[in-house]
Every structure is written in structure tokens, then in C-alpha cells.
Fold:
Amino acid sequence: MMKRVKVKNGNSFLRLLSDIAFWAVFFLFLWLIVDMKLIYFNDASILNFPEFFLTIDFFKEFLYPGGLIEYANAFVSQLFYYSICGALVVTVVCASVAFFADVIFKKMNIKKLRLARFVPVLAIAFLYALYTHYLVFMLVLLTALVAFTIYLYAVKKSPAADWLIFIVLSAIVYAAAGSGLLVFALLCFLYELFYRQKYKLLAVYVAVLALLPYVIFTFVYSNVTIVDAYTNLMPFSWKIVQAELRDELLILLYVVYFAIPFVLLLASLTKLLTLRPQYVPSKKKKNQQPQPLKWHLKHPALSQAIGSCILLLISAAVVLPFHERNIKIILLTSYYSHHEMWPEVLETASKYDRSNYFINNVVNRALYHSGRLGYDLFEYIQHPDSFLLNSEQYKKVYYRKVDVFFDLGLMNSAEHCLAVDIDMVGERPFMLKSMALINIIKGNVPAARAYLNALSNTVFYSDWAKEYIDKLNADPTFADAPFIQQKKSALLRKTYLGILKDPQVFVYLLDADPKNKMAYEYLMAWSLVAKDFDSFVGFLPKMSNFDYETIPPLWQQAILASKAVGKKINPKDYQISQRTIQIFSDFDVVMKRNFGNKQSAYPELFKKYKSTYFFYLTYVQ
Amino acid sequence: MRKKYLLILLLLILALVGVVALGYRPQPTPKIDAFDTISSQPQISPDYADVVFPPNIAPANFIIKEQADLYHVKIFSSIGPKIEITAEDPAIIIPPEKWRRLLDENKNSELSIDIYTKNKDSWQKFNTIKNKIANDPIDPYIVYRRMRPTHYRMRGKVGIYQRDLTSYNEVPVLEGTNHRNGCVNCHTFCNNETKNVIISYRSDHFGNKALLIKDGKAQKIGTKFTYTSWHPSGRLLSFSVNEVRQFFYGTKNEVRDAFDRDSMLAYYLVDKKTVKTSPKISSPDRQETYPTWSPDGKYLYFSSAPMLWKNEEQMVPPDKFDELKYDLTRISYDIETDTWGQVETIIKGEDINKTVLLPRISPDGRWALVCMADYGCFPAFRPTSDLYVVDLIPDSNGQYKYKKLDINSDVSESYHSFSSNSKWIVFSSKRRDSIFTRPYISSFEPDTGIAHKPFLLPQKDPEYFDRTLRTFSLPALIKSPIAVTGEGLAKVVRSSKEIKVNMPVTMATLGVPSAGGAEYISQE
Structure:
């Protein structure tokens, strides 16, 4: 007897250790591989990431079935601002789900399928690996499991008491978690059907499931439709379907909800089929010889370790291959760009080996701010449409354009893009911050104040907002803020209609402020990438408006190239470095050596000059 | 043992209640024997100074924008006890019952507000804020649309809400979420009553249609209307068909603007379930929009402008968009014979170098309240849009006099409407921040056409409008609540049953291509 107890204790300890190992890896995966801050700072690509304000008005918007859990989800989602907090939140919620599932399995004696407690967790990990945000489903599931655990421990022999417990718990689950009622009721139903065989209760439970939403809808939450009263937070709810662009992912939400009830059903059916009702503790016969211990009981530590390894390997095998690395790079470059972390933008972008205009867009922004646009432009894949993302293909892309518009001084274009995406994805704090700044720069102080007031009720931007409210109160013109003044001076003054497009917009900007260096460099870079020599040659003399000590090498190359294609430019008027002349000559020599055959010259030129303008002109269509 | 724990729990609860009660105990009314006088009015927000309140309005709570350790406010009139509020918080929340009684007992009298502030140990008193309590009540309900200040409406929250003006109670009439994030737009009432109501909605899933609420029963009409107006008989609904296009400014403070590529008027005969039009209100040479009926039902007033571009032109905006000036016109109509008279021009936009939009006729028939702006047809996007009244009794020369009301700001005023007694107007204004439209109420003198300083719709939380990022548009005053709301309307939207309309009027009538596309233009 003593020996068996020891084994049990050893098992518990090892199980705890293996669980800790699993959750540690799970947490690290979310923190470091998924990088949860990218979910928070998603560039309006995750439509259902919730907004959150610390106001009563905002809370009142959640007074509907499932609203409390959605409110809780909105709050904890703000913690994704820090990757580590986001990972911790999801880990804690998932671990809680697994814990309660384990409690339920133990209570119902389904020990062989205990690993199934990780199925919803893996489904949610899978969804995060694909850069979606469905924590709310785990919160709903958790609510249902907690309620079911209470039910398991609370139900006694009196049917009246059991009904009452069920109805009270159902009402709480429904009010808090909406469709969590279905999961809870399903678990109760299976339990009563297979484990307690209280068939009379079943009809009552079905009736409660069918009628409770209607009753609560009629008497409590009349501000929702009857459709929403029954379907809110279900995977097939229109709100969920409408916000998910990848329909196929919705199937995982069914896994989240129904994996645990399915395990119960499976276990019950297995027991029925084997006709061994194991949930009834069998009475030991006297003088019965103890069965020899099985291998895994003899070596619990080893078996637990192996179990943990298998679980981790399965988890990794299921989730890791589906991690959307490319989406991560796009989101990460966007994040770094928004936070003006230029070296990180460039380093991350270099990991993306295909052409992507969003990445081009942030790379060019980073190159400009690093002073490298005239140097390293062709280190990266380029396209003229990537500067402002103004082509027809990106007509309906909004937020991703905001930072470049803002930098250039195109405040109305930035404001328009923000307004469209705020309507699309909600009032995300970093968007409101941009709105506030735009209105400060435009001199629209009351509007700026409105955005700052709203922002002061958010979790992580409150201090910034209050600081700016104080600054506004002290001096609405921000006369002592060089950053604001520089942006003010860049504002367009003439009336222009529509969303302004490149390259004309750079010219307008230079008309408004000849010292707008970003507009100038973007115009020159655009001219190079678009191979528009007339534009390049025409605007080159305006270089004197700026503080260039030397002509950037790519421009030097463009001067020689312009001359070569017959444009009216005299390279002698400009300081062309010996290095540039040497590259030009050598490039020509290699081409001649290959009898002008671009294909045969390619390997050598690629090796030596792939980042030069000559190479771009020769090989990039 | 269990009793012991129960006792401890009880004590803990009592302690908690005690702490909460102590924390929230009301400030005792201070005895202010001496104070320094500050010879200026205190800054309060919203600005409830020199305004005329309806006697049935909810308490006008406000924030005192003066620094102090303690605030003491006295609200009083000639009859009845003063309302006295003392608070450390500058937000002054007026007890509703006391406010109601004060206003009720002092109709047509002054309403004064004395504000005392205490800094360190001394009290200061500002100049008394003087307001007036009107004799005539305002219609007790206001209906408005609340939404984000969208550029294209995508999937943001939008809804039509009904607010009880005598309290702060608000109920959703129809929200976008009721029909899968659709849009809800114009809502029109007949004679400020809710016997005949039209609400339009747009939905990817359920189509673009209108809801007719007639005698407490909601039905769906299988067509869409843009701007609508009920004939006072309730037998006919005139509406405009507009081909709206939106565009954006790269530079101006207001980013958005819109124009109608073309528009025309038509009307829906409720009993016959038929849509008709007349060449007189759908001329191919003109753009007709914003219909509104005179209270006697004999005239349809509308805005009308010459076509300055050809329908084939696809440029957005067209070349002369900023030269387009609408006239205020009207046409007589006989509902018994369904015959139209001749179009008369009341005010020619070109003559006054303004565009005249959105006529609304006072229920006494005397005044037309209109928006006038520099050009175009969309006053909510024109910062120059101001409210004017036109006297519909012509002078001896047969000319109609008009005047700018003293209630305008330097940004857009629009979407105004009258109360049923012609004594109050409500309108949307962007005066607080030039982005978010807010509902303002103004007392109106039907005898003189004078409107008094408007006040912002009172809210329970006086900081509400400082914080919310929603616009409130199309405010309309009604005498009783709408009978069918929420799910009652939503199930009609979802239903496949609808009134089939004999519809000879289509966008093809206008000769322009249909709008198409998934992006909706916001109509604030």
C-alpha cells in the first residue's frame, strides 16, 4: 500500500514537472516565435482585435449575452502591447483550460484520454501561429469548464437541486459567455446521459438550452437580435465569419469548443461498448492478489518524461510548420517602422526573399531616415508603386500608408487612411495617437483634444495623451516643439483634390516646402526606380537646397546613366567619385567582354555590382 | 465553527459597506459667509450660459473648468428652493427631481447658476450665469444616428437611437449589428409623430431597402430611398434618388466632400405601393434633392441646381463641382388628383452666391430653415454651411426674405429640424472640434424667426461629448417614442417578406451608371 502511494506522489510531481515544461515551451513559442506584440500592433489585418477604453460608456457597450467575456477579452488583449505579457495571458488562460479539463477528466475517471486536454490549447496555438486573435474563444471555453466543474461537484441526488444548480449556472454562463452555454450544457448533458443516467434531467437541460437565451433576450438583453442571442460567440456567428478573411481557420474554433465534450462522448461510448462502467469504483475482493504493476507504473519518472517529450514533439510538429513566417516578417517590419527602429526594419526585411510592396514601403522609409536612400536603395527589391502604395492594387490598403504620409507631411491623406481603418478595425490606441498628432499639426486643436481625451482612457497610451493634453493647454501651437513645427511647415498649402499620387505629390510637397528633404529624396528615389531620367535630371539641381556633403553614390551613377542615354546633363558639373567612374567603366567592360549579352554577363555583374543603379537599369524590368 | 466564519464574513461585508459609504458620503453644504468676487463668468462645459432651456429638458449637467479644491453651485429661479451642490469634483451632477421641479415651477423665468470655488481657505464667487426657462416644451424625444466619422463606412458601429429628452434614457431603434454590420441612414417622421416612419438601411446581406413603420407595424419596402419627406397626410412619401460620389481634399481642414453626379425626386404612394415621378421634379437638365413638404401638404420644397456636367463624365469630382449652387424651389401638389403645379424658385443660389440646401418647413408653415454654403450639396462636409431662415410670406415685391441665424459657428451646421410647436430647432454642428457632429438645441421664435443661443444635448456625464469619438447626425424631434425598435425591426430586415414596389424610377432614369462597389459613402 505504501509503495503505491509513493508512486502516486511521484507521478503527481513528475506530472507537474512535465506540465511546467509544456507550458514553458508554449509560453516561449508565443513570446518569441509568434511575438505577441505583432497581434496588438497588427496593421489593420486582424479585424477582430478589440479596442478597449477605461470608461463606463465603453463597458455599457458590452451589456449583452457574452459581453462580459468579450469585455474581459478586450481588456487582456491590451496586454499584448508587450509580447511577454500577451504570451503570459494566453498561456495562463490555456493552462487554466487544461487544468479544468484535467479536473473534469479525473472526476469522470477518463484518465486515459487526459492528454486530450491539450487539444483546444494546440488549436489556439495554431491560430496564433497564423496571426489571428481568438483568445475570446478560450475564455468562453474556460467559463464553460469552470461552470461544469462546479456542477460536477455540486450536483447531488435531489433532481430539484440539480435542476436549480444547472439553471443558475446556465444563466451565469450565458450572461457572461453567450454561446459558452452550449458547451456547458453539452458537457452536463453527456455527464447526465452516460455517467449518472439521470435521463429525466436531460429533457430539462435541453429545454433550458433552448429557452434560456430567449428568456434572457426577452427580459434582460433586448438590445440584441434573437439571432445574436443564440449565436453570439459561436464560430458560425456572423460577427466571427465576417471578421475572418481565412474561412478555413474557423474550423479550429469548433475544435476549441467541442474537443472536450467530444472526449467525454468518446470515453462514454467506449465504456458503453466495452460494457465496463469504470466510473463506478469496483469493490475489491478480499484476498485478491495484487496485479503486477505495468511498465509505466514501475518507471513513472521515465514514463512521464517520455510522455512530455512526445507531447511537445507532437505539439511542435502540429504547430511549427504552420507558423506564418512571412506574415510575421511583414508585421514585424511594420512594427519596427512604426516605432522608428530603422536598423531592425532593414535587418528583418532582408530575411524576406521575395518582392513585397509593404516591405519595400517600410524599407524605403527606414533607408530615408537612416540617410541611406541614395546609397542602399538597390540592396532591396524595388518597385515605383511601393513608395506610397498608391497603385490600384493597393487602393484599399489604408493603415499601412499612414506613417509615410505622415512623415512626408501629407496629413489629410494620413487622416483619411486612419479614418477608414478606424471604422474597419476600431479605435486602436496607436491609430488615435496618430490622429491626435495629425490634428495638432493641422492646427485643429479641439479635434486633437477629442482624440487625446479618448486616448487618455486607454491602458498604455494614457500617460502620453495626458502629457499632450498638458502641452496643448500650455501652448496649442506647439511653438517650442521642433518636430511639430517641421511637420507644420511641410503642409500643403494649395488646394489639391483626391488622394495624391507619386511622383506629382513630391513636387507639390517641395512647392509647399522646398526644404522637405524626405519629399526630395523620395522623388529622386522614385525617379531612379521608375527609370524616369527626365525627372531625375530635372530635380537634381534642387540638391543645393539641402545639406549634402557629397552626392549619394546612386545619384552619381544615375548622372552617368542619364548622360549615357542622351539626357542633357554634364557629369562634370557634379562631383562624381572615382569609385563611381570605376564601376561605370568596369560594368561597361564586362558587358563588352560578353559582347553585350546581358545573360552571359549576369553572373559576374551580379557578384560585383548587384546593388548598383547600373545593374538595376540593366536587369530589372 | 461555521457560525464563527459566518460572523467574520458578515463583519467584513459590513466594514466594506462602511468604507464605501464613507467614501461616497455627500459633501456637507458649506456655509459661505464671505467670498471674493470674480468679475467674470466661470468657464463651464458644455456651455450652458445665456441659453433658453425647454421646461421639460433633462438636467443640464456640466463641468466647471476652473481650478479649485471645492466647488459649490446654486441653481435657482424665482419660485421654489435652490438646488445646491457641493463637490470636490468639478463635474456637477444635478439631481433630476429637483431640476424638474425647478423648471416646471418657473416657466418663462430666469434660471440662474451661481458658482463658488474654494481655493485654500477662501471662497470665490463668479458672476451669475443667466439662462432662461421657456414656456413651451420641446418634443420629448430626439432620434439621431450615431456612428464614427467615417470616410467610407466599412464595418464600424452605427445605429439610430431614440433618446428621451426629459431624462437620459436612450434606446437603439436599429443598429448596424442588427443586420450584419449593415448601415442605417435616413429616418423620417410625419408631422413629428411616429405614426408614419421611414428608416433606410443598407446591407451586403439583406440589401438596400427601407423600413416603413405605419400605425405601429413595421414592413419592408423593396426599394431604397435617399432623402425622404412625408406628406402630412401620411399617404405619400417623397424621396430623392441620388448618385452620390465622395472625394477627398489633400489640403483642407475638412478632408471629405461629396457631390451628386445626378439626382432627381420621386414619390411613393403608400396605399398603391407605387413609385412615381414627374418631369417637373426629375428634369434631366437639373439636379433635384432634399425634398420636404409644407405642413399643409400643398407644396413640396426642394433644392435644385442646374446640371453643370454631362452624365458621361466620370471625373470625380467633375470640373465645375465647386461652382454648383442649388436654388431653394417649391412646387404645388394636389394629393387628391395627384397633379403637380409649376416649379417656383424661392431663392436662387446663383443670385446670392450660395448653395441653398436641406429646407425644413416650420410646422406653423411660416419659415423655411435651410443650410447655405459656398457650393455643393453636402452641408455636413462644407465648413461654410450655416443655418438661415427664409420667411415664406413674401414681401410686397413678392420677394422672399432670408436671414442668417445667430446660432452659427465657423464650421458646419446642418441637418436641422423643428419641434412640432415650431418653438425649438435641433441641428448638427461640428463647432466643438470640427470633426464630430453633435446635436444642439435652440429656442426659436416663430413670430420673428429669431433663434437663441443653442446648447449641447445634455448628458448624464457632462464629459461625454469630450470623450466620445462618435458623431451624432440627423437629429429629429418627435412627440412619442417609435413603437417598433430593435429586434422588432431587425426581424423585418431579415424577413424575406417585403412590399413589392412598382418602380419605374431606377438609376437608369438618371442616365448614370450605378454606384456599385462595396464601399459605402457616409452620409453624416
Observations:
- The two ends of chain B are 66 Å apart (CA to CA).
- Helices of chain B lie at 2-23, 96-105, 349-352, 464-467, 487-494, 507-510.
- Residues 512-524 of chain B have pLDDT under 50 and may be disordered.
- Chain B touches chain A through 45 residues (CB under 8 Å).
